[in-house]
Design goal:
single chain; 280 residues; alpha+beta; Arc Repressor Mutant, subunit A; Nuclear Transport Factor 2, Chain: A; 3 domains; six-stranded mixed sheet; 48% helix; elongated; ECF_Sigma-70_Domain; RNA_pol_sigma_r2; RNA polymerase subunit sigma
Protein backbone atom coordinates (compact mmCIF):
# COMPACT_ATOMS: atom_id res chain seq x y z
CA UNK A 1 0.00 0.00 0.00
CA UNK A 2 1.26 3.48 -0.85
CA UNK A 3 1.59 5.18 2.51
CA UNK A 4 1.39 8.63 0.88
CA UNK A 5 -2.18 7.77 -0.04
CA UNK A 6 -3.03 7.15 3.62
CA UNK A 7 -2.77 10.78 4.65
CA UNK A 8 -5.79 12.41 6.23
CA UNK A 9 -6.88 16.04 5.62
CA UNK A 10 -6.26 18.41 8.52
CA UNK A 11 -9.97 19.19 8.83
CA UNK A 12 -10.69 15.50 9.38
CA UNK A 13 -7.82 15.15 11.87
CA UNK A 14 -9.04 18.04 14.01
CA UNK A 15 -12.69 17.03 13.77
CA UNK A 16 -11.70 13.55 14.89
CA UNK A 17 -9.77 14.79 17.92
CA UNK A 18 -12.55 17.20 18.88
CA UNK A 19 -15.08 14.37 18.62
CA UNK A 20 -12.96 12.17 20.87
CA UNK A 21 -12.55 15.01 23.38
CA UNK A 22 -16.32 15.45 23.41
CA UNK A 23 -16.79 11.73 24.04
CA UNK A 24 -14.28 11.76 26.90
CA UNK A 25 -15.66 14.97 28.42
CA UNK A 26 -19.20 13.63 28.36
CA UNK A 27 -18.28 10.30 29.91
CA UNK A 28 -16.05 11.81 32.61
CA UNK A 29 -18.46 14.61 33.41
CA UNK A 30 -15.96 17.35 32.56
CA UNK A 31 -13.07 18.31 30.31
CA UNK A 32 -10.31 18.21 32.93
CA UNK A 33 -9.03 14.70 32.13
CA UNK A 34 -10.31 14.45 28.56
CA UNK A 35 -6.97 15.35 26.95
CA UNK A 36 -5.19 12.58 28.82
CA UNK A 37 -7.79 10.02 27.78
CA UNK A 38 -7.58 11.00 24.12
CA UNK A 39 -3.78 10.98 24.23
CA UNK A 40 -3.88 7.44 25.65
CA UNK A 41 -6.25 6.36 22.86
CA UNK A 42 -3.84 7.64 20.24
CA UNK A 43 -0.94 5.90 22.01
CA UNK A 44 -2.86 2.64 21.68
CA UNK A 45 -3.50 3.39 18.00
CA UNK A 46 0.21 3.86 17.38
CA UNK A 47 0.93 0.78 19.48
CA UNK A 48 -0.72 -1.32 16.76
CA UNK A 49 1.31 -2.68 13.88
CA UNK A 50 0.92 -1.12 10.45
CA UNK A 51 -1.07 -4.14 9.26
CA UNK A 52 -3.36 -3.91 12.27
CA UNK A 53 -4.03 -0.20 11.60
CA UNK A 54 -4.65 -0.95 7.92
CA UNK A 55 -7.23 -3.56 8.95
CA UNK A 56 -9.33 -1.01 10.85
CA UNK A 57 -11.95 0.23 8.43
CA UNK A 58 -13.19 3.14 10.56
CA UNK A 59 -10.31 4.54 12.67
CA UNK A 60 -12.50 7.26 14.17
CA UNK A 61 -15.01 4.70 15.44
CA UNK A 62 -12.21 2.48 16.74
CA UNK A 63 -10.68 5.42 18.62
CA UNK A 64 -14.07 6.40 20.04
CA UNK A 65 -14.53 2.88 21.39
CA UNK A 66 -11.08 2.98 22.94
CA UNK A 67 -11.83 6.37 24.52
CA UNK A 68 -15.03 4.95 25.96
CA UNK A 69 -13.21 1.96 27.40
CA UNK A 70 -10.54 4.14 29.00
CA UNK A 71 -13.18 6.39 30.54
CA UNK A 72 -15.04 3.39 31.94
CA UNK A 73 -11.81 2.07 33.44
CA UNK A 74 -11.11 5.45 35.04
CA UNK A 75 -14.57 5.60 36.50
CA UNK A 76 -14.18 2.13 38.04
CA UNK A 77 -12.52 1.74 41.48
CA UNK A 78 -8.74 1.83 40.98
CA UNK A 79 -6.72 -1.34 41.35
CA UNK A 80 -3.14 -1.31 42.63
CA UNK A 81 -0.52 -2.01 40.02
CA UNK A 82 3.18 -1.69 39.35
CA UNK A 83 4.53 1.80 38.89
CA UNK A 84 5.27 2.73 35.31
CA UNK A 85 8.86 3.78 34.64
CA UNK A 86 9.35 7.31 33.42
CA UNK A 87 10.88 8.12 30.03
CA UNK A 88 14.62 8.13 29.68
CA UNK A 89 15.80 11.73 29.53
CA UNK A 90 18.31 12.77 26.88
CA UNK A 91 21.40 14.66 27.95
CA UNK A 92 20.55 17.60 25.72
CA UNK A 93 22.64 19.98 27.78
CA UNK A 94 25.70 18.19 26.43
CA UNK A 95 24.73 18.86 22.83
CA UNK A 96 25.29 22.24 21.21
CA UNK A 97 22.31 24.54 20.79
CA UNK A 98 22.80 24.68 17.05
CA UNK A 99 22.62 20.90 16.75
CA UNK A 100 19.57 20.79 19.01
CA UNK A 101 17.74 23.21 16.72
CA UNK A 102 18.40 20.88 13.81
CA UNK A 103 17.56 17.74 15.77
CA UNK A 104 14.22 19.22 16.86
CA UNK A 105 13.01 18.98 13.27
CA UNK A 106 13.78 15.26 12.98
CA UNK A 107 11.23 12.53 13.58
CA UNK A 108 11.50 10.81 16.99
CA UNK A 109 13.08 7.64 15.55
CA UNK A 110 15.57 9.62 13.48
CA UNK A 111 16.51 11.86 16.37
CA UNK A 112 16.99 8.92 18.72
CA UNK A 113 18.98 6.88 16.21
CA UNK A 114 21.18 9.83 15.23
CA UNK A 115 21.91 11.04 18.77
CA UNK A 116 22.52 7.58 20.20
CA UNK A 117 24.69 6.51 17.28
CA UNK A 118 26.57 9.66 16.22
CA UNK A 119 26.60 11.79 19.37
CA UNK A 120 26.92 9.21 22.13
CA UNK A 121 28.54 6.43 20.12
CA UNK A 122 26.17 3.77 21.40
CA UNK A 123 26.70 0.32 19.91
CA UNK A 124 24.38 -0.38 16.93
CA UNK A 125 22.71 -3.35 18.65
CA UNK A 126 21.96 -1.28 21.74
CA UNK A 127 20.62 1.58 19.60
CA UNK A 128 18.25 -0.83 17.86
CA UNK A 129 16.98 -2.13 21.20
CA UNK A 130 16.38 1.38 22.56
CA UNK A 131 14.64 2.65 19.42
CA UNK A 132 12.62 -0.55 19.21
CA UNK A 133 13.78 -1.56 15.72
CA UNK A 134 16.10 -4.13 14.21
CA UNK A 135 19.61 -3.11 13.21
CA UNK A 136 18.80 -2.60 9.50
CA UNK A 137 15.58 -0.72 10.34
CA UNK A 138 17.48 1.50 12.74
CA UNK A 139 20.14 2.33 10.15
CA UNK A 140 17.58 3.94 7.83
CA UNK A 141 16.43 6.69 10.23
CA UNK A 142 20.02 7.43 11.27
CA UNK A 143 21.13 7.73 7.64
CA UNK A 144 18.19 9.99 6.77
CA UNK A 145 18.95 12.13 9.80
CA UNK A 146 22.53 12.63 8.62
CA UNK A 147 21.31 13.41 5.10
CA UNK A 148 18.77 15.89 6.44
CA UNK A 149 21.30 17.68 8.61
CA UNK A 150 23.70 17.89 5.66
CA UNK A 151 20.91 19.26 3.48
CA UNK A 152 20.30 22.05 5.99
CA UNK A 153 23.93 23.15 5.63
CA UNK A 154 24.63 22.50 1.94
CA UNK A 155 23.81 24.87 -0.92
CA UNK A 156 21.54 27.09 1.20
CA UNK A 157 19.12 29.31 -0.67
CA UNK A 158 19.21 33.06 -0.10
CA UNK A 159 16.36 34.56 1.87
CA UNK A 160 14.82 35.87 -1.34
CA UNK A 161 15.12 32.51 -3.12
CA UNK A 162 13.68 30.70 -0.11
CA UNK A 163 10.74 33.10 0.09
CA UNK A 164 9.97 32.74 -3.62
CA UNK A 165 9.99 28.93 -3.50
CA UNK A 166 7.92 28.83 -0.30
CA UNK A 167 5.29 31.09 -1.83
CA UNK A 168 5.23 28.94 -4.96
CA UNK A 169 4.70 25.86 -2.77
CA UNK A 170 1.79 27.61 -1.05
CA UNK A 171 0.22 28.48 -4.39
CA UNK A 172 0.56 24.90 -5.66
CA UNK A 173 -0.91 23.46 -2.46
CA UNK A 174 -3.81 25.92 -2.46
CA UNK A 175 -4.55 25.11 -6.10
CA UNK A 176 -4.18 21.38 -5.31
CA UNK A 177 -1.81 21.23 -8.28
CA UNK A 178 0.18 18.09 -7.54
CA UNK A 179 2.22 18.27 -10.75
CA UNK A 180 3.33 21.86 -10.14
CA UNK A 181 4.12 21.11 -6.51
CA UNK A 182 6.23 18.09 -7.50
CA UNK A 183 8.25 20.32 -9.85
CA UNK A 184 9.19 22.53 -6.88
CA UNK A 185 10.54 19.57 -4.91
CA UNK A 186 13.90 17.88 -5.28
CA UNK A 187 13.62 14.35 -6.71
CA UNK A 188 14.91 12.87 -3.42
CA UNK A 189 12.88 15.14 -1.14
CA UNK A 190 11.65 13.70 2.16
CA UNK A 191 8.65 14.87 4.18
CA UNK A 192 8.24 14.26 7.91
CA UNK A 193 4.88 14.47 9.66
CA UNK A 194 5.08 15.05 13.41
CA UNK A 195 1.73 14.22 14.96
CA UNK A 196 3.28 13.42 18.32
CA UNK A 197 0.97 10.44 18.58
CA UNK A 198 -1.89 12.85 19.22
CA UNK A 199 -3.40 13.11 15.75
CA UNK A 200 -3.64 10.40 13.10
CA UNK A 201 -0.82 11.70 10.92
CA UNK A 202 1.41 9.65 8.64
CA UNK A 203 3.78 7.53 10.73
CA UNK A 204 6.63 6.99 8.27
CA UNK A 205 8.53 9.70 6.35
CA UNK A 206 7.48 10.07 2.72
CA UNK A 207 10.23 10.03 0.08
CA UNK A 208 10.32 11.26 -3.53
CA UNK A 209 8.89 14.39 -5.13
CA UNK A 210 5.76 12.75 -6.56
CA UNK A 211 4.77 10.96 -3.34
CA UNK A 212 5.57 13.99 -1.17
CA UNK A 213 3.50 16.24 -3.46
CA UNK A 214 0.55 13.83 -3.24
CA UNK A 215 0.77 13.56 0.54
CA UNK A 216 0.93 17.35 0.97
CA UNK A 217 -1.99 18.02 -1.34
CA UNK A 218 -3.97 15.32 0.43
CA UNK A 219 -3.17 16.76 3.86
CA UNK A 220 -4.01 20.31 2.79
CA UNK A 221 -7.10 19.38 0.79
CA UNK A 222 -9.43 22.33 0.36
CA UNK A 223 -12.04 22.83 3.07
CA UNK A 224 -14.24 25.89 3.72
CA UNK A 225 -12.68 26.40 7.15
CA UNK A 226 -9.04 25.65 6.21
CA UNK A 227 -6.58 28.36 5.14
CA UNK A 228 -2.93 28.17 4.16
CA UNK A 229 -0.68 31.22 4.53
CA UNK A 230 3.02 32.01 4.41
CA UNK A 231 4.60 32.95 7.73
CA UNK A 232 8.04 33.19 9.26
CA UNK A 233 8.99 29.78 10.67
CA UNK A 234 12.40 29.40 12.31
CA UNK A 235 13.58 32.60 10.65
CA UNK A 236 12.60 31.62 7.10
CA UNK A 237 9.36 31.69 5.15
CA UNK A 238 7.23 28.68 5.96
CA UNK A 239 3.56 27.77 5.85
CA UNK A 240 0.89 27.96 8.53
CA UNK A 241 -2.35 26.01 8.23
CA UNK A 242 -5.39 27.27 10.12
CA UNK A 243 -8.66 25.48 10.70
CA UNK A 244 -11.45 27.63 12.12
CA UNK A 245 -8.78 30.26 12.96
CA UNK A 246 -6.83 27.72 15.03
CA UNK A 247 -3.30 26.89 13.87
CA UNK A 248 -3.50 23.22 12.92
CA UNK A 249 -0.09 22.75 11.31
CA UNK A 250 3.18 24.58 10.83
CA UNK A 251 5.32 23.60 7.85
CA UNK A 252 8.98 24.48 7.50
CA UNK A 253 10.94 23.92 4.32
CA UNK A 254 14.61 23.22 3.67
CA UNK A 255 15.44 24.67 0.27
CA UNK A 256 18.61 24.23 -1.79
CA UNK A 257 19.29 24.85 -5.48
CA UNK A 258 15.81 26.38 -5.90
CA UNK A 259 14.09 23.15 -4.79
CA UNK A 260 12.64 21.91 -1.53
CA UNK A 261 14.85 19.13 -0.14
CA UNK A 262 13.07 18.53 3.18
CA UNK A 263 9.53 19.21 4.43
CA UNK A 264 8.79 19.27 8.16
CA UNK A 265 5.07 19.24 9.04
CA UNK A 266 4.28 19.81 12.72
CA UNK A 267 0.78 18.62 13.61
CA UNK A 268 1.43 17.83 17.27
CA UNK A 269 -1.02 20.02 19.24
CA UNK A 270 1.47 20.29 22.12
CA UNK A 271 4.08 21.87 19.85
CA UNK A 272 1.47 24.24 18.42
CA UNK A 273 0.40 25.74 21.75
CA UNK A 274 2.60 28.80 21.28
CA UNK A 275 0.82 29.39 17.96
CA UNK A 276 -2.57 29.21 19.67
CA UNK A 277 -2.34 31.41 22.75
CA UNK A 278 -5.39 31.25 24.96
CA UNK A 279 -6.66 28.00 23.42
CA UNK A 280 -6.79 24.72 25.33
Amino acid sequence: MDRAEDGVPIAELLDERRHLLDVASWMLGGARDADGVVDEAYRRWYGLSGDERDGIGEPRSWLARVVGGICLARLAPPEPGPARPGPHGMLEEEISGVLLDALDSLSPAERAAFVLDDVFGTAPGAVADIVGQTGPECAGPADRARDGLRARRARPATAQQHDAVARAVRHACTAEDTEHLASLLAPDVTAFFDGGGKVRALVEPVHGHVRVARSMVRLLAGHPHTTLDTHSVNGRTGLVVRYDRQVAAVISLDIADHHVVRVWVVLNPDKLRSWNPGRH
